[in-house]
C-alpha cells in the first residue's frame, strides 16, 4: 500500500527545479534592474529637456536638462500640472490640451513650437514632441523639448543678411541678371537691368535669357559662352542683347555660375 508521499529522489528533483526557477527569477530581476538603471541614465543625462507627466499634465519627473534650462528644481514642481507650475504659457493652454489628448489616444505628436517660462519668468522658445509611454504599467506622457532660441536667432540673422544682399543687388549700378541653367528662366533682375531693358520685375519673371538675346537677323539666339561656363569662372565676352522695344543692345558681359539646392544658376553682369 502506497502512502502517496514523494520519494527522496523526487524531493531532491523538486528542490533542484525550485532552485533553478529562483535563480532565473533573480537573473531576470537583475537584468530588469540594470535596464531600468540604464534607461534612467539616458533620461537623466539627455541633452534635451525630458518631462514625464500624466494625461492631465501633472508632472511626474524631469531630467537635469529641464532643471538647468528652466531654472526650476524638480522637487518644487513635481505633483503640479504644467500650467499650475507656470511652465507652459497660459495662452497656449488649448494647444497643450490638444497635444495631451492626442497622446492619450496612443499617438505621438509631430514637432511643434511652444513658449515655456523659466523660473525667472523669461520666455523660452522650444520645439516639443510628446510620446505615449508606460511607467509601472500606467500610461504616461513623455515630452521632449529642445531649446530653439539659437536656431531662431540664426534664422533671423540669415533673413537680415539676405535682405542686406538683396539691397546691394538691387542698388548695383551695373545691370545684373540671374537665370536658371536648366530652363533659362530669369530668376531675378536688378533695378539697373529693368531700366536698361525696359521690362518691369513682373515681366522679367516671365522671360528667359533667350528672350533678351539678339544675334542678328535670321539667326537663332546662341547663349555661348553663357551656358559653357563652369561654376566659379568669370569670363568676359561681348554679347548682343535687345531691349523691350527691340532695339539692339551690344554689351560686354561678365558671367559667373553658382550651384544651390542641386540647381545651377548663371549670373550675368552687363557693362
Word description of this protein:
The protein folds into two domains: 45-147, PAS domain (Beta-Lactamase, 2-Layer Sandwich), CATH 3.30.450; 163-270, PAS domain (Beta-Lactamase, 2-Layer Sandwich), CATH 3.30.450. The chain has helices at 8-44, 64-70, 74-77, 93-104, 149-171, 191-197, 201-204; strands at residues 49-53, 59-62, 112-117, 123-135, 138-147, 176-180, 186-189, 236-242, 248-260, 263-270. The protein has 271 residues and is α+β, with helices and mostly antiparallel strands. β9 and β10 (263-270) form a beta hairpin. It is elongated, with a radius of gyration of 35 Å. The chain contains seven helices and ten strands. The strands form two sheets. It has a five-stranded antiparallel beta sheet with strand order 2-1-5-4-3. The protein has a five-stranded antiparallel beta sheet with strand order 7-6-10-9-8, with helices on one face. Residues 217-221 have low confidence and may be disordered. Helices cover 35% and strands 28% of the residues.
Amino acid at each position: 500500500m502506497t502512502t502517496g508521499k514523494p520519494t527522496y529522489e523526487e524531493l531532491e528533483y523538486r528542490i533542484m527545479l525550485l532552485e533553478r526557477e529562483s535563480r532565473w527569477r533573480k537573473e531576470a530581476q537583475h537584468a530588469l534592474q540594470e535596464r531600468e538603471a540604464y534607461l534612467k541614465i539616458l533620461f537623466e543625462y539627455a541633452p534635451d529637456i525630458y518631462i514625464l507627466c500624466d494625461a492631465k499634465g501633472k508632472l511626474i519627473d524631469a531630467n537635469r536638462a529641464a532643471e538647468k534650462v528652466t531654472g526650476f528644481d524638480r522637487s518644487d514642481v513635481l505633483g503640479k500640472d504644467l500650467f499650475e507650475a507656470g511652465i507652459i504659457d497660459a495662452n497656449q493652454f488649448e494647444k497643450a490640451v490638444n497635444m495631451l489628448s492626442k497622446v492619450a489616444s496612443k499617438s505621438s505628436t509631430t514637432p511643434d513650437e511652444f513658449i515655456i517660462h523659466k523660473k525667472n519668468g523669461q520666455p523660452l522658445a522650444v520645439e516639443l514632441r510628446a510620446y505615449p509611454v508606460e511607467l509601472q504599467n500606467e500610461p504616461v506622457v513623455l515630452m521632449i523639448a529642445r531649446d530653439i532660441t539659437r536656431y531662431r536667432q540664426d534664422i533671423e540673422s540669415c533673413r537680415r543678411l539676405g535682405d542686406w544682399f538683396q539691397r546691394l543687388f538691387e542698388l548695383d549700378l551695373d545691370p545684373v541678371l540671374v537665370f536658371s541653367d536648366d530652363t533659362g528662366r530669369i530668376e531675378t533682375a536688378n533695378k539697373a537691368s529693368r531700366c536698361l531693358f525696359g521690362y518691369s520685375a513682373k515681366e522679367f519673371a516671365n522671360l528667359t535669357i533667350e528672350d533678351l538675346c539678339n544675334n542678328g537677323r535670321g539667326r537663332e539666339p546662341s547663349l555661348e559662352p553663357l551656358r559653357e561656363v563652369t561654376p566659379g569662372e568669370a569670363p568676359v565676352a561681348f554679347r548682343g542683347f535687345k531691349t523691350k522695344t527691340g532695339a539692339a543692345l551690344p554689351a560686354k558681359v561678365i558671367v559667373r555660375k553658382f550651384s544651390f539646392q542641386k540647381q545651377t544658376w548663371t549670373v550675368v553682369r552687363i557693362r
